[in-house]
Amino acid sequence: MNRGKKYYKKALDGVSLRIPEGRVSILVGESGSGKTTLARIILRAIDPDSGSIIFNGSDITRKTGKELRNFRKQAQMIHQDPYSSLNPLMKVFDIIKEPIDIFYKDYSNEERIKKILAILDDVNLKPSTVFAEKYPHMLSGGERQRVAIARSLVIEPKLIIADEPVSMLDVSIRGQILQIVKQLSVNRKITVFYITHDLTTSRDIGDEISVMYAGKIVESGSIDRVLSSPLHPYTQALLDAISEPKFENIDKEKVIRIKNFDSAPAESGCKFFNRCPYSMEICKKEPQLESKEQNHNVSCFLYDKE
User: How far apart are CA 110 and CA 199, in angstroms?
Assistant: First the structure.
């Protein structure tokens, strides 16, 4: 083994993605597919090796200083873990006030109080004056995530990236959090980029969806079209894997259209080649994401007219 040689893994590979303004766009894929890496690149938490990030018509890929600060005021993130993303030593009031102190230094104390209490009302933490004085350990998981949402919203961003925001919450309250995100998107005309591995929640909140596998977008389009008529074999396998909560299905073996579950993504050509039940010789070449139907794109040779 050559200890001096560096080995690199390509987390994202030629991702081209458009997030429509004022809508909820879903990014779905299994763990390790590159979803969170893409979110961090969009927010400029890490820099891409190549390519561009265009926000409201402006290239923010190489912005620094004041220009980068102005962008980050407009783009906020809701993290997956509501337990570690909040400072346990701060009251809810101070947690939400922190971004105001950073981006709205000219606000008076009265303006700060009014804004914080109003945003707590918007995320259904009522009475807001009571919740404002609580510490994170005094809240349930769902209440903590609402605080995280309020903290993101209080500086009135244009884009919110929600990275698996309900995956660590009880099933009984996931729907409530998703509805809050959806409603705030509609009411405030905020663009939401919602990252998940769970297709069951996607239809309830999303307008468009992109499916990611091994750092590449393999299918995209309107959420109803993609989920009702999936084209890519990987999307089909994701839908096959959704459990059916019916008593008569408990003992039935679920057929998932995938082979060699433990196979790694292919090094070249179609990344899904080793696991795809329909793989062909041509799949050793790399397919391109192309429009096959109206509002429906797929990267697969199964639909190549030639």
Answer: 43
Cis peptide leading into residue 127 (ω within 30°): yes
56 lies in the same domain as 198: yes
Domain end marker among 140, 172, 206: 206
Report the domain count for the chain.
Answer: 2
Q: What is the mean pLDDT of residues 209-215?
A: 95
Judge if 116 and 174 occupy the same domain: yes
**For the chain, how big is the Rg over CA atoms in Å?**
21
One DSSP character per residue, 28-75 reads: E--TTSSHHHHHHHHTTSS--SS---EETTEE-TT--HHHHHHHHHHE
Report how far residue 271's alpha carbon sits from residue 214's, in angstroms, rounded to the nearest whole number: 7
Name the DSSP class of 283. Answer: G
The structure tokens 């510490």 sit at: 135
CB 208 within 8 A of CB 6: no
Burial class (CB in 10 A: 0-12, 13-18, 19+), 81: middle
- The pLDDT, as a whole number, for residue 251 is 55
Q: pLDDT per residue over 171-199, tens digit each?
A: 888 888 888 888 888 888 899 999 998 88
Closest CA to 80 of 161, 186, 188: 161
- Do residues 44 and 158 share a domain? yes
Distance of CA 280 to the CA centre of its chain: 32
Range(s) of the domain holding residue 242:
223-301
Per residue in 150-160, pLDDT tens? 999 999 999 99
For residue 33, what is the domain's CATH number? 3.40.50.300
- What pTM does this model have? 0.89
> Domain check: are 199 and 288 in the same one?
no
User: Is 212 within a domain?
Assistant: no
145 shares a domain with 294: no
